[in-house]
Amino acid sequence: DMGDMGDMDMAGMEHGATTSVADLVTKADGPPDVAVDLVAAQGEVTLASGRKVPGYTLNGTSPGPQIDARQGDLVEVTVRNESVTDGMTLHWHGVDVPNADDGVAGVTQDAVAVGEEHTYRFVAEQAGTYWYHSHQVSHEQVIGGLFGALVVHPARGSRNAADSDTVEAMAVAHTYSGTRTLNGEEGDVPFVAEPGQRVRVRVVNTDNGPTQVWAGGPYVVRAVDGYDLVEPTPVTDRSVTLTGGARLDIEVAVPDDGSAVRLHVGGATALVLGPEGSVAPEVTQPTEKLDLLSYGSPADLPFDVSDPDRTFDYDIGRRPGFLDGRPGLWWTVNGKMFPDVPMYVVREGDVVVMRIHNGTSEDHPMHLHGHHAVVLSRDGVAATGSPWWVDSLAVDPDETYEIAFVADNPGLWMDHCHNLPHAKEGLVAHLMYE
Ligand code: C2O
Ligand code: CU
């Protein structure tokens, strides 16, 4: 859970509600296609440079091992907590897993105590770039390194299966004790590729804050939060915002002339794609940003948003008060402070429209568990580009987004800010099926 939010989660809801929700879910049977064993530990993280920082590891490293699955695979991950004193869990960020496997301590399971283990099983139905992380004292454990990347490769022969002439790279951004890294490395991170090669880079932002992504040449945003965009065109002279918890699949072409090309993820870290030993020209950050609201080609949505079954407001505010007995300036949802925020109640099959308004002076990466939502509009301007599916959406000060989703995954789900200290400070709501 969100640390001390855990106890409040339980205080704020009928205990019976959690039990009945868990009972709705049946685990996939049969032998797993992908089986992974992880050991979680607390202590030190060794960065690629050899420098050690305090933190958490999975199988001795942070990021933890990358998990690769193919669409349709039954994934089984067993984690043993060796030494994480507060207990830990694994949440499959962006994967619409059955509720019982969502890994939220205090909501869908108890935290896994030292010496215990827990097994997660889910079918990886949606191809795309995801990540996993602890959901217990998240503002410490995720920031401290208890996470890894999860890639679900498209089923063979499917429409979005990568061309055989495109290679794939990872760029997992994380800041350890003030040091910005990509895949655990500082500064320039080389990725060897042939001249003319196209590289699809799966960029994951595990930090609390947003980062800008840009390349030293034209690039194409292929996917957002695991979902492929329809007919995206090459982008030049623009950066694209990657909010906390979100992912972007970005395709870059390695120059034909034997040089390399930089793909910046923030100012301090870049993937350098080119032949061994090749040099990439420096590239300054573009001043303009790509607007995903109008990027790519429109396509029909798989559900009708014209007459939603539920319309919700998620109004983010801030005011002084008490949280867990502590006085402070806390976040509010629709004017209410946690745990007095009413749950958003849906029935299976409902088409839901949610209006998210940020009435505060900070930006919030809003993350809905268990569902993907499509962006309908921002500040009253309708989306005109490719359907833009999100599980993690940057809502800047004074912005209003309208998003829509189908309630097709029964359970009890968090809908919170992924700037994890904000979640600890009350920016949390829940979606519940009646
Ligand atoms: Cu990435 Cu509720 O978490
Ligand atoms: Cu926030």
TrEMBL record:
<dbReference type="GO" id="GO:0005507">
    <property type="term" value="F:copper ion binding"/>
</dbReference>
<feature type="domain" description="Plastocyanin-like">
    <location>
        <begin position="331"/>
        <end position="432"/>
    </location>
</feature>
<feature type="domain" description="Plastocyanin-like">
    <location>
        <begin position="42"/>
        <end position="155"/>
    </location>
</feature>
<dbReference type="GO" id="GO:0016491">
    <property type="term" value="F:oxidoreductase activity"/>
</dbReference>
<protein>
    <submittedName>
        <fullName>Multicopper oxidase family protein</fullName>
    </submittedName>
</protein>
<keyword id="KW-0560">Oxidoreductase</keyword>
<keyword id="KW-0479">Metal-binding</keyword>
<keyword id="KW-0186">Copper</keyword>
